Queue: 4 jobs
Job 1
Amino acid sequence: NNIVIENITATRKTTRAGVAFGFNLDGAIDINITNANISGISGETSTEHFRLVNTNNLSCLNCTYDSSLEDVDSNSDLTRKWYYRAHTEDTSGTNVSNATVDLYNGIDANPYITLTTNSSGWTNTTNIIDYVNNGGTKTYYDTSVIAANYNLTLWDDHIYNVTDEQNNLNDSFVLDIDITPPVMGTYGISMTTGTT
């Protein structure tokens, strides 16, 4: 199918059966909805922003809607994403170019996105995952760890809650000397900061 829907405002309409849908998809594949605002009509009692039946690869980037109003059947999946960009500088305020910014999903040991900064210390804008709703079960990336480093000598990291932050085009890292690189553990990341 490979459908792209961009820059829309959708208001759910109530059907004759009394159910209101923003998007009612059956058998769709590879749908990208970007920059959307989905809302309901006040006073509705039985509503869904997304109803997915046998629908694979629905991606919602920068879409504002009530995530509790998703009805995703066991043969469907929905991924909610937001825009992200980072900036790196050292402790003297100088932009750090060619630094890497690694985004971890809080589950796997390896980053699911690695970005590199340009000469002004900025990464390109990318899409980060808020959650994946696979068959009605949501896996949140809300405890992501983001670590930045330059030449394995300057480091900074922080916990990042994608659900709370949503779009963030100004995530800031101040890189400092760290004698050990970050170590991913079961419940997060640990580093030992110091100077030599």
Note: Residues 187-196 have pLDDT under 50 and may be disordered.
Job 2
Amino acid sequence: EHGLLGLLFILIILWLFMGSRLSFLIALAVPFSIAGALIMFNILGISINVTSMFGLLMVTGVVVDFGIVVAESIYVRHTQNESQEEAAVNGAVYVFMPLLVALLCNILAFMPILFLGGMMGKFMVDIPKAVILTLSISFLQSFIILPVYLRKFKIQTTSDSKSFFSFTSKTRSAFNNFLHCIIDKNYSIIIKKIIF
């Protein structure tokens, strides 16, 4: 029940800021990753207990991160007049290495728990296994399944001005202009002074 409630909250937040189609496709990473992790539990002989379920719940909100970055990269390229197939390929390739590094950093952060000794090690060993498997499956889903869906589904690049949620696109546009202003006028000047 709490897991479904968390998924609902994730879906609502994604819907507000990324649109209905993108939010639905990205939110699929949650059940897909958890189901994939449970299948791997069965294959690897990992028991489903309190600690392994805690590991799954720990990364419930994180598994959508890969999908958000990939979908946003594809969305931006599609708004730059690339075809859906080109945007899906180029957008995924563009963010592959940064997200791979992020995945490896998360894995390395939990790896030491696998080597804990004593009763504490036996009790906590399933947490990193659950986290590593779930994040890895989410990463694969974001680069194998999500781009295929985004290549087939029409990505909405303009918002209806009469839509109740049109304010989110206006907010994103205003924030984008603000960032460009900061980077072009202030941040670049500071960097030039530091370097030169």
Note: Residues 183 and 189 are 9 Å apart (CA to CA).
Job 3
Amino acid sequence: FGQLGTPIPTNVRTLTQISDGVTQIQAAGYLSFILKADGTVWGSGQNNQDQIVDTGDGDWRYPSAMLAWTGVTEISASAWFTLVRTPLGELMGRGYNFSGQLGYGAPAKVSDRSLIATNGGNHSIWVTTTGDLYGIGNNFFGNLGTGTSGSGAEQTVPVLIANGVIKASAGDCTLFLKSDGSLWGTGSNQRGQLGL
């Protein structure tokens, strides 16, 4: 799919320099993202949900600048959608939005006060500057900790999950670390992800 940003769409079996001036990297599914020191985001790989650029489909075999975003300070990606954080703490997203995990708009503005952001399969979570953990999107497994789950449990507006949070991570479940050192989780535990 061109995840490595090289012109040859085959496996690369030797170390190959892809870019320079990079401050953050994110690989997810069949795509890769690079955050450069100048605040630009570059993406390559599968673009079937417009995770990289507005094309409607197709793979990007060369890193392409995501022109909608400049001055980015953090990136987070899943196989289906992408989140970026601006210096003002705005959380922006693009790509698959079937469960409302990106809010609405193109590119969607998900939040105004994000400090740390991460995305799971079909939901987004972020920690604000005041330590509040919010989430939006798919809640099928109870990923957002609202006490509901199953079909129709999606949240298309942000919901407060917890306070006093310093770190969070998302997949089919949501894990978060509170400032008192306690680890909390919600969502799928079908394979023991939550350790319960």
Note: The radius of gyration is 17 Å.
Job 4
Amino acid sequence: VSFADFWAASYEVRLKMAQEQAVVGKVKITTGDITRTQCTTFGNVTLYPEQEALFRRIYKDIFVDRLSSAILQDGETGSGKSFIGAFLIAQHIKDGALDYNKYPLRMLPNQYIIFTPKNVVEQYKRVLESIGLGKLVRTRAIYVTSYSQFSTLEGKVLVSEEEDMVTDNTVMKWNPMSRPLVLIWDECQKLNNGKT
């Protein structure tokens, strides 16, 4: 039995384990009646039912119902967090977010920005390529970069620092022409240190 066969056959066990741990918006995620054939496919990748349930819930809460502008997707290593993030972008685009006739400024680069550790940048690009978004990565409509790049001159193109006179803190503000539609902080626990 290959690992892929084992993984596909074990989704019910993995879902049960995930349900015991995962809460989104204080609501448990369940697959309900989602079967493998009802799962979303982009490119040559199809989500597993437990990923599908989470993908649908996040998409609905963020992009449809606009219940939140941010969400934390907490999952084990190998649970498909990068794929869910990529599918959220793909669905957003499929639903017309980059309709240049309706939104001309969305022809600008960096509409979707993914920050990730340096050693994960190429892997995340391969995930996006596998679901059919490679051209948008190459043209930088989807920009995958590392946290370390953000702290260089490249980051200064995206954001500017301003001093908050009331709190005496430095505040980062998006430069108007580089503000993304969607921003993903992959492995965001790495941002825990305020000095980095």
Note: Residues 21-27 have pLDDT under 50 and may be disordered.
